[in-house]
Amino acid sequence: MGILAAYVQRLRTGQGQKVEIAMQETIASFMREPMSQREYRSSPITRRGNRTVSPTDIYECAPGGPNDYIYIMCVNTRMFDALITAIGKPELGADPRFQTVRDRHQNGDALHEEVAAWTRLRSKWEAMETIAAAGVPCSAVHDSEDILHSRHLHARNMIRTLRHPVNGDVQLLGPPIHLSESEVEMVPSPLLGEHTAEVLSAELGLRAGELAALAEEGVVGLAPALETAGA
To answer: Across the strands, what pairs with 171?
Structure first.
């Protein structure tokens, strides 16, 4: 964004400028909202994990594997009512421990267990489908395999399959930015020495036999397929 701003400024004024981006400052900028809280707190802000406003949290799902979790974001009473109805526990709405946002936050452990007792019996996909259908923001926690098989990411052309000359088809993540008029095609990176013969032939006029001799002596490196062809 800084580079883009400097570029637009140059287009407008003809004047270039130096762009500085420090890693620590970039990370610190993501703390703007928590830092604003220091104005009315008497002590430093402490760690709070995933639970911001209960029952917003990450919940274990069946069958209990290391990646079997769902994240549920429930920040107001409307979402809370929709959530407890979706999980078949509407009676929690009358529980004095969970009447207001403050009540739910103060009794977060008890409320977490009520929701977790339901999610533990369902896969993260089943839980996500039910809770999302109720209008409560949520998402299954995706591992690497889940990402590669995501229907959403495939529909968005985010998952690309590239043909590698040695390893065959390889699945990779594409760029997250999609431009309507200038989509960038992904191509495999070159093999080590893949273009050595092409460059040396064009620039120095070396013939195939000379290239093969140089490769055999270890002076230059050729890609495996090209090395075989040169022999």
So the answer is: 161
pLDDT of amino acid 164: 85
Amino acid at 106: Q
Tens digits of residue pLDDT in 85-105: 999 999 999 999 999 999 999
Q: Which long-range contacts (CB under 8 A, 24 or more apart) does 181-186 make?
A: 186/160, 186/162
Question: CA gyration radius for the chain?
Answer: 28
CA 36 to chain centre: 27
Task: Please tell me whether residues 136 and 69 are part of one structural domain.
Answer: yes
Total domains in the fold of the chain: 2
Q: Are 103 and 97 in contact (CB under 8 A)?
A: yes
**Domain presence at residue 146:** no
List, in order, residues 6 or more apart from 171 with CB less than 8 Å away.
Answer: 148, 159, 160, 161
pLDDT in tens, 130-162: 999 999 999 999 999 999 999 999 999 999 999
**Structural domain of 205:** 196-230
Residue 21: inside a domain: no
**Residues 69-86, mean pLDDT to the nearest whole number:** 97
Residue 29 located in a structural domain: no
- Which of 117, 141, 165 is the last residue before a domain boundary? 141
| Those residues with Cβ within 8 angstroms of residue 116's Cβ, 6 or more apart along the chain or in another chain | 59, 60
Instruction: State mean pLDDT over 67-84.
Output: 97
Whether residue 98 lies inside any domain: the answer is: yes
Q: Which segments of the chain are extended strands (E)?
A: 57-60, 69-72, 138-140, 159-164, 168-173
52 pLDDT band, cuts 50/70/90, is: confident
